[in-house]
Description:
- The chain is mainly beta.
- Helix content is 7%, strand content 53%.
- It has three helices and 15 strands.
Amino acid sequence: MKRFSLLLLLASTLSFAPASQKERAFDVGEYFKFRIHYGIVNAGYATLEVKEDVRNGKKVFHAIGRGYTTGMTKFFFKVADNYESYFDKTTGNPYQFVRQIDEGGYTKNQEGFINQSTDRVLLKDYKKKTEKTFVVPENVQDVLSMFYFLRNHPNIDRMKVGEAVTVDMFFDDDLIKFKLKYLGKEDITTKFGTISTMIFRPLVMSGRVFKEEESLTVWISADDNKMPVRIKASLAVGSLKADLDAFKGLKHPFTVKVKP
Length: 260
């Protein structure tokens, strides 16, 4: 199995514009749990949680994402990932992020500090014992803050099929132009019932993990929560699927068309 990140699959699904432009799709206390399947195998779980913290003397969102393999999968490819992001409650812009991963023995331990006023990122690599400063575009996102940033796009409910959104994202010591394309709507069957969803396709880097540029597809709820319900990915070897397995603390009512 190629090296992959359970959290990266989730965090690269949806992210859009400042929450100040419309009522926020989430709030403190929101929690998602996803069940990850590699083919027919239950490969592991991933969670996303929103807490509150203080940075620069004001309250900010503290998002925590964790991914881990379970059962037989962890014996031949163990994954233990931890992503964290501290971002502004009004603009959605991040101040600090953490990336601690162990994916089949491939490890990283990084912490980034984003100065939005000077457009600089100070990246501390605790494994390599290095520090480096990067110049970044205005309103740059980290991989986890982007997920929440994009859920609040003011035009998300009015996007046309084929329309795309591009966001600057700092990830893995580099700046990435992350592009998200809208594919349309679909009702899907889940453990919670039949849910109306919007379908998006993040355009990802091919070769290292994914089969090709358009290998990742995500279904998000078409209600005001805009929460990820299902994710599918064609990897360089095999395929991966993530289904929403549990949730709590939603800001808005959860809409189900047909109950199970």
